[in-house]
Amino acid sequence: MTEPTLDIIAIGNAIVDVIARADDAFIEAEGIDKGSMRLVDTETAEGLYGRMAAGIEASGGSAANTVAGIAALGGKCAFIGQIADDQLGEVFAHDIRSLGVKFETAARAGDPPTARCLILVTPDAQRTMNTFLGASQFLPAAALDRELIASAAILYLEGYLWDPEQPRAAMRAAIDVARAAGRKVAFTLSDAFCISRHRDDFRALIDDGLLDILFANEGEILSLNETEDFDAAVDATAAKVPLLVVTRSEQGAIAVKEGQRYAVPAEPIDQIVDTTGAGDLFAAGFLAGQAQGRSVTDSLTMGAIAAAEVISHYGARPEADLKALVAARLG
Amino acid sequence: MTEPTLDIIAIGNAIVDVIARADDAFIEAEGIDKGSMRLVDTETAEGLYGRMAAGIEASGGSAANTVAGIAALGGKCAFIGQIADDQLGEVFAHDIRSLGVKFETAARAGDPPTARCLILVTPDAQRTMNTFLGASQFLPAAALDRELIASAAILYLEGYLWDPEQPRAAMRAAIDVARAAGRKVAFTLSDAFCISRHRDDFRALIDDGLLDILFANEGEILSLNETEDFDAAVDATAAKVPLLVVTRSEQGAIAVKEGQRYAVPAEPIDQIVDTTGAGDLFAAGFLAGQAQGRSVTDSLTMGAIAAAEVISHYGARPEADLKALVAARLG
Question: Can you tell me the ipTM of this complex?
Fold first, then answer.
């Protein structure tokens, strides 16, 4: 087994976010569950886009946000995801590469266009996401660079990408490659509704011992275990994965490793502007900490610092110097 | 002469801004004049984009920002500008329409793509703009809706659009339409370098009495008059235009109307994040005030309020509720 040359390689949706303000009445009139992510088809996406307010566009995608954060923290990362051969695809590729993330998945010609996520941010800073998967849902297993996957200490996968068939197969193939190379596999459950669509698959991944690190938020760990009892849910899942990380919004986050529970509070923040990317950046901070050989508690703190930064502005990628923020706190 | 049904119709570049942070060393290494706007060709734009940091995209364009601000303040506006039939063109059209601005210029098929402006924001919040004019430079006089122009109380033109030949001819034709309908013509000098390219033309517009309202900043009024003496420059130009508005950054702004000088201070602001759009939004506040029949001083104050809002965040379009900000101040 050779030494890994990359810290993290992630597979995820290659999405450009369109972020706009909306009030609660608009969300209700559109018949959307506030705070959730839903998949929309071209027609729904176009209709909603026509009705929503002016916004800004920024590169996004859950796992892509995470590697962007890890790279900002000094980690060596690569990303695999399907863009189309269009303007938004160029924007996505530019942004992730400019952060130093290796991204070489070839753009796909013709329709559908690059994925976009229409994100409505309500005055309470919650984000409601309407994802048009576009080209992202056509990531073929053939696009995987197996050598690159085998070269990374951790393979990181997003649950959202479990929805479309081709990327699901690609992620299963990637897990095999990583495990054969003796690498770790990390997975984020992404969203409670996503779990309700794929609970059996996600449970099977865990039961089969394919996941080394699992990320969830409170709603997700409850949904996975179909219970309302947080501690019972954490204990049940922690018994099956070597390292479980659960974020709890303003209550901070916990991790369970080999039966031992660790907890950190949320980082104080002046004003929450847009919670988009909070979970993604938490995972970034935690994984970057692990890659640097830090303790579980310090890795949790790095997650909390990165999450606090990203919710203080619009957009799901870090703007401030995360390395400096962590150095000021942990040295 | 019929009553106008629109407050303002603007003709300008239809641009999507790409906004990213850069340090002074990067600006210098690229050989760019910090704080200026330069026109770049496809090759330069692509090279610079490849080297610059990850950013966000937001609709922009000087005159378009101004009508976006006027609409946010309750004014009835229309915009004329050339987009291409592509994703960024759709973004531009969506954003300006979602603000209630009438925008019906047909998208142009084929190359070049929709204009974009690569904006580098340095730690001092200054913006350095690299504009790839793209489709914007092919706005033909035939695209003008003459009836619509004649229906607006004020025709507003941006100096930047004087660079390419077709839009320049279109703007000259629009001035004729507006004047024949008994409407006012407002013009912004846009940029000191723009004036150095077109000083004779701009002076001729003024000398021929074609402009009723002229907007400039300090550097522009000096450049127009080729002097270093601010008061002399203001007096010289004010003698030739019925209403002159000059913005002075942190020193506030002045206006000269019929020999009388008015001044307001800059609005206090916590933190300047990105000065992109400051002049555009000042013009928006001022013109909205004039459309509402307010005094010159109150119109200047509205300009200062709108400018202060836009420099407190990234992007050149207002994010806060400008109407509420003005109501809290002026009633």
Answer: 0.88
